[in-house]
Amino acid sequence: MTLQFHESARLRTAALQARRSYPGPLGELVSRELTAYADFGYRLSNDGLIPRLATAVLATRAER
To answer: 31 and which of 15, 26, 43, 60 could share a cystine (Cβ 3.0–4.6 Å)?
Structure first.
């Protein structure tokens, strides 16, 4: 299932923030996962983990 534009944009914003907040391999991995989910949508996973990950990354941004 394809994501709506606002969902995809939120995931891509979180992916960019992950690279800034978590330098090195951790940030790269989180960024890749969020970007892949934005590209492919629910076909990869439907357990809610990736949207929760995006929320956590974006919350980290707000705390700084």
So the answer is: 15
